[in-house]
Amino acid sequence: KAGVTQTPRYLIKTRGQQVTLSCSPISGHRSVSWYQQTPGQGLQFLFEYFSETQRNKGNFPGRFSGRQFSNSRSEMNVSTLELGDSALYLCASSRGGDGYTFGSGTRLTVV
Amino acid sequence: GENVEQHPSTLSVQEGDSAVIKCTYSDSASNYFPWYKQELGKGPQLIIDIRSNVGEKKDQRIAVTLNKTAKHFSLHITETQPEDSAVYFCAARGRGSTLGRLYFGRGTQLTVWP
After folding, report:
1. What are the pLDDT digits (tens) for A21-46?
2. Cβ-Cβ contacts under 8 Å, A56 against chain B
3. Which of A48, A98, A104 sits opposite B101 (nearest CB)?
4. Number of Cβ pairs closer than 8 Å across A and B?
5. Which of A46, B31, B83, B110 would you label with B48, given CA atoms 20 to 30 Å apart?
6. DSSP assigned state of A60
7. Is the pLDDT at A20 greater than 80, yes or no?
8. Contacts of A33 in chain B (CB under 8 A)
9. Please, what's the largest Cα pairwise distance for chain A?
10. Which long-range contacts (CB under 8 A, 24 or more apart) does B9-13 make?
């Protein structure tokens, strides 16, 4: 079966711009969560959505937001980009609470 | 919230030897512990997981053990092969208001020398 699909794979943006990342979960998976991965901070939780509702949110500023659609696809948005937002953004899907499957990620570079 | 610590940060072994990575967690209510393998340029891949009602789980050359009393769990890889070289992450799932959130260790870079 198809895995978790994240688009785009790579992005280069300028400080102050905004960006939208997309995640298509495994068919039948209703939970989608987002993580930021950097060499300095490791894997940090951004937020989790289940059936279009945000269930959890990590300790990130309000510039980071997300949403989930009725087909379980999810997007995350980062506004007013900063250099420190450069990272690998990972999406994971789950049927209901375990067996989280990650996508290959979106590599965001802010210049 | 939960705090997960992972050791060692780097591990080098000879092909055919065993490798052990250890993690501790802080929230005694945590009940689900997955392990991930991440290769360069890829997302983390789930390799094995364990729930708190089980003390040990095996899948071919990979095993995970859990000690709830001591709040630690370990990944054991036997008969290591060069293709096992990667970064390995342990994680614990949150409970209650943080259910659905995984707390990750900082990772272990495993290198298997032929």
Report:
1. 999 999 999 999 999 999 999 999 99
2. 94, 97-101
3. A48
4. 60
5. A46
6. -
7. yes
8. 100-102
9. 39
10. B9/B106, B9/B107, B9/B108, B9/B109, B10/B108, B10/B109, B10/B111, B11/B108, B11/B109, B11/B110, B11/B111, B12/B110, B12/B111, B12/B112, B12/B113, B13/B80, B13/B110, B13/B111, B13/B112, B13/B113
CA distance A10 to chain B (A): 11
Q: Which residues contact B39 (CB under 8 A, 6 or more apart)?
A: B45, B86, B87
Q: Mind listing the pLDDT tens digit for each residue in B24-61?
A: 999 999 999 999 999 999 999 999 999 999 899 999 99
Who among A45, A50, A105 is closest to B102 (CB)? A45
